[in-house]
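User: I'm putting together notes for a lab meeting next week and I want to include a structural view of one of the chains we've been expressing. I don't have a solved structure, so I'd like a prediction I can at least talk through. The sequence is below, exactly as it appears in our construct file.
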Amino acid sequence: MREEQVPDRNIAMELVRTTEAASLAAARWVGRGDKNGADQAAVTAMRLMLDTVDMDGVIVIGEGVKDEAPMLFNGERVGNGRGPKLDVAVDPLEGTRLTALGRPGAVSVIACAPRGTLYNPYDIFYMEKIAVGPEAKGKIDLAAPVRWNIEQVAKAKGIDIEEVTVIILDRDRNTEIVDQVRAAGARIRFITDGDAPAAVSAGMPGTGVDMMLGIGGSPEGVVAACALKCIEGDFQGRLWPRNDDDRKLAAERGLDLGKVLTMDDLVMSDDVFFAASGVTSGELLRGVEYTAGGATSESLVMRSRSGTVRKIQTVHHWRRLQQLGAS
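Assistant: Thanks for the context. Below is the predicted structure for the 327-residue chain, given as structure tokens.
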């Protein structure tokens, strides 16, 4: 049963402290070749900060099972229990391999919505996706051919098809989509990991990305839908079974594998909070940069009800933070 309690303040400003903490912790592991070490550092830092946030949160979208990595697990209670009841979707380190190899585009992300409003794909870990910005909202259809969707985006943005840039996760499962994008004449920007920030970049100005297509993680799809709702973009997804075991599991869970899930299916509230902080620099955010005695970070903070979008650059002073923690 849907249980919606609308928060009366923008808790995204509190949530960004959790993504900042996770990004700072993970950034210590950039280029060290240990993705689980980086993920564990991010999880530990985020969990510590989440306990200070005024909310009664339950993790409904967590990472870890698919990757056999440390996680904030589904069903875990987070927050200090004194605020609104919220569903929480979280990935303390989206782009563990990017971090381990020192590649661009790793972020820490969190999204929240009133209790009972976030879609749970359970253990169906993959999803077909399409994401666009505000200009093309309401003009896409995941069930339609790739060329048609590209044409719709080009028309909505007032550009030629040849000028449309599509961001796609570089995986064999996306080969057919890649072929169709190229046949349509659009450009492709490949990413090796991190399709949640890729979907968000499709909705943000100044990223050079017009749309996102392809099969990626279903938890990341829910996170992306939360962010795109905040900026009045659009997102659709369809669960993608890897094998007969996934099909059997979907049937047991009552999940319709043929249904195109709209943004409102994935997040059934108009009061959504989203925060992300960069770990390594990418299209969406700059990564953590260390200074003598501290570091700088860049974060994105959004709320759908108010339409507020903030990009925050923060200077962190280690000595002052340690003194604050000791007081």
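A couple of points you could mention at the meeting. Confidence is low (pLDDT under 50) at residues 64-69. The two ends are 44 Å apart (CA to CA).

User: Perfect, that's what I needed.
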